[in-house]
């Protein structure tokens, strides 16, 4: 090497791809193990129990679910979920706008009214509705005192009581996602639409509703998933008069000692819930692409 020659720079050593891969596996490993043990493995066992028979694999438990009686049970669960979701949306959508536009003490009171019920158990809230709606409950007492009715009317153990209680219990899960989106809306967009000649109705339908679609989809998916699989609410508010998939699963495991049938009903309920979530995710992606 001459005096004018400079030593060649040493190459920069980058971390080996294998080392990065093993580091990623090491960080993700514990969480993956928890998911497998607590979620994937129980679901696999549930599905296995639904198709396992004395002579091997069988679909006999699913054939029972295809009979008219259990198709009616499936429809009861879907009807409860659809009615609860629809009514919760009709109430929760305008309530989300009112909450987003409220200020000061009023907003704090509304948020407290929304969050405080979430601290109570579903069992407590369902029992509260049984107390309100029974023959000597507060609702009948007020109706008689106002002269609207002459004697107590039957409210508890009716479909109306079930829907009212379910909407009340699951309503916050509709309001919160929509409120989170509405609170971020730029209200100048509505003013811009008005300057372009759009009426308030057209501006709401063409500008506001598409922007709040992610919150609507999230709220609908949450409320539908919770209400279609509800167990405590129908058990306490209507009982055996309105059998659902969740109550059928409980009876199959706890009373009838038919774990295979209960597992098959559980798989059907899981499929309904996953379908609702998948559809909501697809709608969310399509809405976001537009």
Please outline the helices and strands.
Layout: H1 17-51, E1 52-53, E2 56-57, H2 60-65, H3 68-101, H4 104-115, H5 122-133, H6 138-145, H7 159-170, H8 172-182, H9 188-195, H10 200-228, H11 232-237, H12 245-254, H13 259-289
Antiparallel strand pairs: 1-2
Helix pairs in contact: 1-13, 3-7, 3-8, 3-10, 5-7, 8-10, 9-10, 10-13, 12-13
Characterise this structure.
Helices cover 74% and strands 1% of the residues. Strands 1-2 form a two-stranded antiparallel sheet. The protein is built from 13 helices and two strands; from the N terminus they run H-E-E-H-H-H-H-H-H-H-H-H-H-H-H. The model has no long low-confidence stretch (mean pLDDT 87). It has 290 residues and is an all-alpha fold. The chain has helices at residues 17-51, 60-65, 68-101, 104-115, 122-133, 138-145, 159-170, 172-182, 188-195, 200-228, 232-237, 245-254, 259-289, and strands at 52-53, 56-57. The radius of gyration is 27 Å and the shape is globular. Helix 3 packs across helix 10 (200-228), helix 8 (172-182) packs antiparallel against helix 10 and helix 9 packs across helix 10. The chain folds into two domains: 16-56, no CATH class; 59-289, MetI-like (MetI-like fold).
């Amino acid at each position: 090497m001459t005096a004018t020659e400079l030593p060649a720079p040493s190459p920069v050593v980058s971390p080996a791809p294998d080392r990065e891969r093993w580091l990623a596996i090491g960080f993700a490993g514990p969480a993956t193990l928890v998911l497998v043990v607590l979620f994937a493995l129980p679901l696999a066992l549930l599905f296995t129990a639904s198709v396992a028979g004395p002579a091997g694999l069988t679909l006999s438990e699913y054939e029972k679910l295809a009979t008219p009686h259990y198709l009616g049970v499936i429809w009861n669960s879907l009807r409860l979920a659809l009615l609860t979701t629809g009514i919760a949306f009709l109430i929760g959508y305008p309530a989300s706008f009112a909450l987003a536009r409220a200020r000061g003490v009023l907003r704090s009171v509304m948020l407290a009214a929304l969050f405080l019920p979430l601290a109570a158990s579903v069992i407590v809230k369902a029992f509260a509705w049984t107390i309100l709606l029974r023959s000597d409950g507060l609702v009948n007492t007020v109706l008689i005192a106002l002269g609207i009715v002459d004697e107590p009317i039957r409210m508890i153990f009716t479909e109306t009581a079930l829907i009212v209680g379910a909407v009340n219990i699951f309503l916050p899960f509709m309001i919160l996602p929509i409120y989170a989106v509405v609170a971020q809306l730029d209200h100048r967009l509505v003013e811009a639409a008005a300057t372009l000649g759009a009426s308030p109705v057209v501006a709401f339908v063409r500008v506001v509703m598409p922007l709040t679609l992610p919150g609507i989809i999230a709220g609908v998916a949450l409320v539908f998933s919770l209400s279609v699989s509800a167990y405590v609410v129908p058990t306490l508010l209507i009982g055996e008069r309105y059998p659902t998939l969740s109550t059928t699963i409980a009876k199959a495991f706890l009373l009838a000692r038919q774990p295979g049938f209960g597992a098959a009903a559980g798989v059907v309920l899981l499929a309904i819930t996953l379908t609702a979530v998948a559809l909501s995710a697809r709608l969310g992606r399509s809405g976001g692409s537009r």
